[in-house]
Amino acid sequence: MEESASYNPREVAVQQLVDAASRIDVSDSIVEKLKHPKRILQVSIPTRMDDDSFQVFTGYRVQHNTERGPAKGGIRYHPQVTMDEVVALAMWMTWKCAVVNIPYGGAKGGVICNPKEMSLSELERMTRRLTSELIGFIGPDIDIPAPDVYTNPQVMAWIVDTYSMNKGYLIPAVVTGKPVEIGGSLGRNEATGRGCAFVSREALKTQGMDINGATVAVQGFGNAGSVAAKVLEEMGAKIIAVSDSRGGIYCEAGLDVGAAIEHKADTGAVSGLEGCDEITNEELLALECDVLVPAALENAITADNADAVNAKIVAEAANGPTTPEAQAILDDKGVFVVPDILANAGGVTVSYFEWVQGSQMFFWTEDEVNSRLETIMVNSYYGVRAEAQRGNWNMRDAAFNVAVGRVAKAVELRGIYP
User: Fold this and answer.
1) Domains and CATH numbers, the chain
2) What is the structure's pLDDT at 7?
């Protein structure tokens, strides 16, 4: 796609900061500070492979800001990881935590590797060596990693064990997104999709629509998309289409989300579900519906297809599914976009709950977790909407205004030491 050919995520992230700062009148000196991550660590990760040879992987951990609390962000394992990408993701985590007003700054990590070509034991040895290299830079009061692309609760369990063995006692709060059996939180796996469902419901309300019978199309039927679809269905919405990387299904009368989840588990794809028509991902994006939930990859809605979007509301469960050019087109069409840093912040919110529970060694029921998540997502939605109305901004600009404003105020109050 042409508009992303020269796409540099770090430059995009800095420009978003500059734009937000200009809208809310943040001083140049604070903007200059926030353009630069607090700390960038690059590590070599020598790893014994199954054939007894050694391979040296490169890893990054970036802490963008810790003015409002310890740094927070995932670790991804991917062959295309770059330092600029990790810096941008760390900066976006700062804003995501601030927009839902949880006491974290942003961080991110990445290892350049192809986990699909590595055995479980190789991934374990690499993860444990990575953790050893990060011992002095992560911790419950410093920087709390979490799963991201191609990492999962098992990887987090290895980090907990390696970190704890080095410290001499169990420290579950060093990461979030770990198994419940070693201090993970109930409700964490569903949190991103559930949070997106909460803000979708509120967006329907403020746009003058009832969730009962509201039509919803979900692009991407992985964890976030399937949970968002299931929760919206339980709230009374009608899910008319879902899709995954292999294609999609459409049912005008509304499909059974539970049946679609089972069908995908059995066959590996949503296609072929009885009673549904086959559609492509592009056709799903163009369906007439009340809510479109892009829950797959970034850059799903672009300058090439944004004009075809026929949804009244777009709720971004994925990170970066709408390009800046597409946002402008959607604005002109009157589409109400709930941006990713708000719509998918349920995951980091329940990660915060997990960290709190682990720090106190006092764990909550799933109902308590979901109730607290709902309170934060709903309050955050209306906070951003009030900012949007205050300056006649779209919701994305308003969300960045709220987030950058909160972080800038913390920088101003704390000052520069010495």
Assistant:
1) 37-174 (3.40.50.10860), 191-343 (3.40.50.720)
2) 66
